[in-house]
TrEMBL record:
The PDZ domain, residue ranges: 81-157
One Pfam family, short name: PDZ_2
Native organism: Mesoflavibacter profundi
Keyword Ribonucleoprotein among record annotations: no
UniProt-recorded name of the protein: S41 family peptidase
Record field: transmembrane: 6-26
PANTHER family, A to Z: CARBOXY-TERMINAL PROCESSING PROTEASE CTPA, TAIL-SPECIFIC PROTEASE
Length: 530
């Protein structure tokens, strides 16, 4: 036997052992120079978790400990690096994608029964013939009575193109109705409203920048142009941001070829620059961008890019001040982290990220500080730093270091702004109360034409009183609208309009009483006269 044949099994064994060693230590995201090194920080955390798992005197949910640890680490980085637990990932992903697979209804659990407030326009339920006010009693033979909202969502959603058979109780019908509904993608709208403010001034309100936002926006913009819009009011108030590239695509519709839109810079100094292309469909139109203290991130990218390119007019109050870019990274167990990986800069070189040097608590208390120093009512109270002064190509002075300062300041409307009303609207109290009001005589409400409702319908004092009584029962608190009765009426009318007429109706009502909209109309008139 050859001596080489004797060594072959030994060599194979050594190769296998080496392969196991290398494979066990290999991180495919690591550079080659880290391949044979250990990470003592990672080892320390892993060892601690193992000690708790196997040696601690009582059983402990180490998953929750890991969650706390991850959050603690991120809290020491910046305010916008965040952890997303696996139980929240699906909802978060759907929200940013801009759709989910379901039957397409907004519902309210009324007296233990799932009741349709309205169907999503062109959604599966609307196509099947389900109407507002319908009670859904069964899905595929399973009773839905008394289910929690989460359980109802689970039973009504499913795979795309799968069928669900619904048993429905409808007022005026003696027997239960049966509907075969084919589940499909249902949009989560990011364009809340789109309509003409005047004969040639269009209006679009965007609530966030999801994957679907650009398509929604461009469809709305083209429709407005077909209706005669030569100017646009783009409402980004309260918009917290979203995908950077979606904001870039929207800005591209306003700026000429090769204009710088935004650039990002990472810790190594590497820059990624985005420029406008030739495709813009509104390059010759006048644009007014409305912002406020809750307009952040991608909203600020739009406002900053247009302002720095001397395009249009920024109207409102100083924006939030978020100039950090996050990237979502999976953690292997269904959870993820959105980690800040770079900063973005406007075309003049401004970073509009406000300081977080004093910690996250101080950072998030900034709104209260703005209220207390009077900034929301008086532009002279806005604090700026001369060291962060920049000039646009036409010589306009702009500032970095803490949000976009508008070209035209509009103070907070203290008559319309009321935290109680905003809270009640966000939590669905207006929507649920109005649903019950409409249910008292749905036929009478359905008989009102849309235009007649907008022009002539009035919410009376009795409805406001009924709403106060409803809130006392639901919230166990004595909420009365003595100083804000008219404002409560506007919200009630807007909510009725939304449930009866759908897309955009809510804001079409509220915007009639909006001082910032009035200012935009005034500015537009002045530009038109010039």
């Amino acid at each position: 036997m050859s001596k080489y044949k004797i060594y072959i099994p030994l060599l194979i064994g050594l190769a296998v052992a080496a392969g196991i060693f290398i494979g066990g230590n290999l991180d495919f995201q690591d550079k080659s120079d880290k391949l044979f090194t250990s990470n003592s920080k990672k080892d320390k955390l892993n060892r601690l978790i193992d000690y708790i798992d196997f040696e601690y005197v009582e059983d402990v949910n180490t998953d929750s400990i890991v969650d706390v640890t991850v959050n603690g680490i991120l809290d020491n980085l910046d305010p916008h690096s965040v952890y997303i637990p696996k139980e929240k990932m699906k909802r978060t992903a759907e929200n940013m994608k801009g759709n989910f697979v379901g039957i397409g209804i907004n519902f309210y659990t009324f007296k233990d029964t799932i009741t349709v407030i309205k169907t999503i326009e062109n959604g599966p339920s609307a196509k099947a013939g389900i109407l507002g006010g319908d009670r859904i009693l069964e899905a595929n033979g399973q009773s839905l009575l008394g289910e929690t909202n989460d359980s109802l969502v689970e039973k009504l959603r499913g795979k795309r193109y799968s069928e669900v058979i619904l048993k429905v109780l409808r007022k005026g019908e003696p027997d239960l109705l049966t509907f075969n509904v084919t589940r499909d993608e249902v949009p989560i709208k990011s364009v809340d409203a789109s309509y003409m403010l005047t004969d040639n001034l269009g209006y679009i309100k965007i609530n966030r920048f999801a994957e679907s936002t650009y398509k929604e926006f461009i469809d709305a913009l083209k429709d407005l142009k077909n209706e005669g819009a030569t100017s646009l009011a783009l409402d980004l108030r309260g918009n917290p941001g979203g995908f950077l590239e979606i904001a870039v695509n929207i800005i591209d519709e306003f700026l000429e070829d090769n204009k710088l839109i935004v650039y990002t810079r990472n810790k190594k100094g590497d820059e990624d620059r985005s420029y406008a292309t030739k495709r813009g469909v509104f390059e010759n139109g006048q644009v007014f961008v409305m912002i406020d203290e809750n307009s952040a991130s991608a909203s600020e990218i739009i406002a900053g890019a247009l302002q720095d390119n001397d395009k249009g007019t920024i109207v409102g109050r100083r924006s939030y001040g978020k100039g950090l870019v996050q990237r979502e990274m999976q953690l292997g167990d269904g959870s993820a982290v959105r980690l800040t990986v770079s900063k973005y800069y406007t075309p003049t070189g401004r970073s509009i990220q406000r300081s977080y040097a004093n910690g996250n608590t101080d950072y998030y208390d900034d709104f209260a500080y703005r209220v207390n120093n009077g900034e929301l009512l008086d532009p002279s109270k806005i604090e700026v730093a001369d060291s962060l002064k920049y000039k646009t190509p036409k010589g306009k002075i702009v500032y970095g270091g803490g949000g976009i300062i508008p070209d035209v300041f509009v103070p907070l409307d203290q008559k319309m702004y009321n935290e109680t009303l905003s809270f009640l609207e966000r939590k669905g109290y207006f929507s649920n109360f109005i649903f019950e009001e409409i249910e008292k005589d749905r036929q009478a409400y359905n008989a009102i034409s849309k235009q007649d409702f907008f022009d002539n319908f009035q919410v009376d004092d009795q409805m406001v009183k009924d709403f106060e009584n409803y809130l006392q029962i639901k919230t166990r608190s004595n909420i009365v609208f003595v100083a804000y009765r008219d404002q409560a009426k506007y919200y009630l009318k807007a909510t009725i309009a939304e449930q009866l007429y759908g897309f955009g109706a809510f804001y079409k009502i509220l915007n009639k009483h909006d001082t910032m909209i009035d200012k935009v109309k005034q500015l537009h008139q002045e530009v038109s006269v010039d």
